[in-house]
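re the bet — no i am not wrong, look at it urself. input seq straight from the record:
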Amino acid sequence: MDSRNPALQDVTDCFRQQVSKPDLFEAIDFISRNQNEFQYLSLSIQVPAVDALAVLEQVPDKNTFHYYWEKPSAEFSIAAAGSLARIQTTGQQRFRKASDQGKELLSTVYHISKLNHSLASVHLLGGFSFFDHNIGKQWRAFGAGSFNLPEWVLVREGKFNVSTVTKNIDPADSETDIYNSFVETFEKLDRICDAGAYSIESKKPFKSEIDTPDTDSEDYHKWMNSVENATDLIKSGEFKKIVLARELNVRIKEPVSDTRLLNHLRKQYPDCYSFLISQDGESSFIGSTPERLASFHDREVLTEGLAGSISRGKTASEDAVLEYELLNSQKDLSEHAFVLDAIEENLQRFSDVFEHPVSPGVKKLSNVQHLYTPVHARIKDGVSRTEVLSRLHPTPAVGGYPREKAMPYISKLEHFDRGWYAAPVGWINANGEGEFVVAIRSGLIKSNEVRFFAGCGIVEDSNPRKEWDETNLKFIPMLTALEHARK
């Protein structure tokens, strides 16, 4: 279907043009005759192009589920709000339980659409915590595994834009009442999608005046001790690599706007995945991560090794020299090899195809460059996508290697609760499309308190001071964005 159709006026017009009353009434009648099977009615229509982040910023009810996802360079974005149902899991089987409950929930949704597109579908949006259990006070609203069925979702892929609205069908409601409830939701979408009606409050950026702790700080001495303990464990043969992270707790005088912060991040890092998840409006987990955990298209899986880092140069020559140093750094190449070995080890028995380039390349971001190797796999019939996620998480880039030996030491050596930091967040739909990222370069926002996170891989010859400097480098994107985030 041509997304440039001039007949597309506003969202409500699109609904009335693409979904006739008889078609909707027929669907409602079908659900009423199959009440034991279906609980929800969902419909997808093509809509005009919108800015996902602007739409989310205009949602009047902030005390409900909100979701945003965008990779600007790929021209792909998602905005969603409202929660009709929420899947929550915890424990060692949380991935499997999320898969089973997700399939069960999707089976109760009757979906109609004239669009022949994989994104014209019912979506589940959310993610998991880093560890199997997530009981920290700051992360209580998120749980260890959480996926929401939103009331509405807007998805953009290139020039194709689709809106999916879902309703919980009460058998006592008349066909006209249900039809009118869809109209009401599309009219709400009209109001938040109409950029010409936006009320813009002009506010100047403010200086956060937040510096990372110096080498005289308690944080620094704790870090030095943790890294030295980790390298001692590696030398004694406990594991080969472990990833340690830091939390930077920032309190500022004025409330922080999560969408303003993200607007800066997406402009500065168009090749990264910017995301926002808020369960109840009280707190938001946001980030702009360069690391994709897995993309799913039918049985095809795309993942990547992203480990080994160095700064960007101030000149082209300096940048080239730093790239050369990274590509020839035995420490970074070793760290990167652990990641690729783990991906291969975890995916090969689930895959008919597993392939990647022999040597890593370099992924350049605005302030840092990473060793990077793309990986393609084709999963076997009967293997669920969440099973693939459970095998990939955590990669050695955020956990350690071997995973089972390194993981128990992370919480012993770190001095904060990771929550959803470095965990899989993303989306999946009823057509088997989905994408998950590793939630690094991220932060948890609650009013005027922000917690940012940054980590680095520790191997036998790691230098604690150098790793300290690397984590400070990784804090810069979020701290810079914070200056643009006043409400």
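see?? The radius of gyration is 23 Å. told u. also Residues 57 and 259 are 6 Å apart (CA to CA). so pay up
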